[in-house]
Amino acid sequence: ARPPGLASPVVMTDHLEDQAMEIEALESILMDDMSLVDGAEAIPGATHAPCYQIVVSPLGDGEDEDADDESQIARLGLVFSHTPSYPDEVPLLKCRSVHGLFDAELVAVHAALTCAAETSVGCPMIYDLTQVAKEWMRDRAGVVDVVEETPEQIASRLEEEAEARLRAMRATGTPVTPETWRAWEERFEAEETLARLSKAA
């Protein structure tokens, strides 16, 4: 009989496969933002699996960085290591400042990541945790997401703007210029002519 608390070899194998597949997927998505770390950058007590660091920026692809804004050039190092039973338990996590983060901030983001990890037990979660860290960094930097409009939303917005302009014009009237006066005069004369013709008929 297997001693209590000792995982089945089949389950262990499944966990190892899940972990290997997750690392492979993360490397293909994150590329240079993810790397192996050891020594002082690693997580103390991480003996089951290597430690990886994901460098998290507050900015997304295509967003221009303001080099004078310290909050935008800050970088978080999200260090993780799989445990033997991951993803059926939370991974080992560590937050370090690659650039510009204070100790109290690292404690805060670590708490947010731990909370997110606890709600994700049972599924590979490292990429999701990276997104949590990203959102935390964006909030810290005050970066506002640009919402992409659908063609329908653009059409609706333009229609609303046109109606608003029309309402404003009606409220203020049409400014009189030589051009608008001539146009009014021609329209008035045409209407008068039509009125005379209809009476004559």
UniProtKB/TrEMBL annotation:
It comes from the Eukaryota. Residues 21-140 form the RWD domain. InterPro entries: GIR2-like, RWD_dom, UBQ-conjugating_enzyme/RWD. CDD domains: RWD_GCN2. It comes from Micromonas pusilla. PANTHER family: RWD DOMAIN-CONTAINING PROTEIN. Signal peptide: none annotated. This is RWD domain-containing protein.
